[in-house]
């Protein structure tokens, strides 16, 4: 399967960036390209199967999606590569490092999913939501307000506008495939709970107020990464790249430095 891709020219190592569930490569580029700017990397932004402009796989499972990404890497890039991902994309990137470690030079995992099933996630206490100005969600569509209220830690109209612009960029993909994937028995990778060790440099970035995937499960999963750095950021939630872009850039640059050691 050929996946839709955008690439930037660079003389350094290749970095492949995987998107959040239901979003496109344009959303991923908006989230991660500012943090990678100036590093000279060959940046590659993929649309997952059934997302953006990529066709769906025959089977709506995360393993089929992961296999399609690995097949694309095998065909198009010289391994190993740097892998970066946000949310579901980070979940897949970690899965690739477990199943095909020879493909991966290092991992940048931003608000990664660890347990795909919502009832298995350890989430922060939401009884005291962060302060927010009156009307901070007024510009959001009504059907997204509850999600953003749960997801965001940096709660301002400017952050909401940035997130909405990113979420609506690029194609919407095959919504039937996405729904079947999310609700089907194959949404979790079969080795989701395996503590397979990945020895490359890893940076795991989480939001203190992330009500979607939390930050505690990600900390406990650090036993898988002997060269891993874990960061939890206050006033950040599930859309951390748009909530705290300066911190994301600083921490990404530190990770890139470690990938050269």
UniProtKB/TrEMBL annotation:
Alphabetically ordered keywords of this record: Hydrolase
Q: Where is the AB hydrolase-1 domain?
A: 29-248
Task: Fetch the Pfam families from UniProt.
Answer: Abhydrolase_6
Keyword Transmembrane helix present in the record's keywords: the answer is no
For the keyword Ubl conjugation, the answer is no
Taxonomic superkingdom:
Bacteria
Task: Kindly list the GO molecular function terms attached to this UniProt entry.
Answer: hydrolase activity
InterPro entries in the record, alphabetically?
A: AB_hydrolase_1, AB_hydrolase_fold, AB_hydrolase_sf, Epox_hydrolase-like
PANTHER family per record: HYDROLASE, PUTATIVE (AFU_ORTHOLOGUE AFUA_4G13070)-RELATED, MONOACYLGLYCEROL LIPASE
The name this protein goes by in its record: Alpha/beta hydrolase
Species per Swiss-Prot/TrEMBL record: Micromonospora parastrephiae
């Amino acid at each position: 399967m050929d996946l839709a891709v955008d690439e930037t020219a660079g003389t350094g190592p290749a970095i492949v960036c995987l998107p959040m569930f239901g979003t496109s490569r344009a959303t991923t580029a908006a989230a991660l390209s500012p943090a990678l700017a100036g590093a000279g990397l060959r940046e590659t932004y993929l649309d997952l199967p059934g997302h953006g402009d990529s066709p769906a796989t025959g089977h709506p499972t995360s393993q089929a999606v992961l296999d399609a990404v690995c097949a694309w890497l095998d065909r198009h890039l010289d391994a190993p590569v740097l892998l970066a991902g946000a949310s579901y994309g980070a979940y897949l990137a970690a899965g690739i490092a477990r199943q095909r470690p020879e493909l991966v030079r290092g991992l940048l995992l931003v608000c990664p999913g660890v347990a795909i099933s919502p009832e298995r996630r350890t989430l922060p206490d939401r009884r005291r939501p962060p302060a927010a100005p009156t009307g901070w969600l007024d510009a959001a569509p009504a059907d997204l307000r509850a999600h953003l209220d749960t997801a965001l830690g940096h709660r301002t109209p400017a952050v909401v506008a940035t997130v909405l612009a990113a979420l609506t960029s690029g194609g919407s993909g095959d919504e039937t495939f996405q729904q079947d994937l999310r609700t089907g028995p194959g949404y979790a990778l079969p080795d989701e709970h395996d503590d397979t060790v990945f020895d490359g440099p890893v940076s795991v970035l989480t939001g203190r107020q992330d009500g979607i995937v939390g930050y505690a499960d990600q900390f406990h999963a650090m036993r898988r990464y002997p060269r891993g750095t874990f960061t939890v950021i206050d006033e950040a939630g599930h859309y951390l790249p748009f909530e705290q872009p300066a911190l994301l850039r600083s921490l990404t640059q530190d990770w890139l430095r470690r990938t050269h050691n």
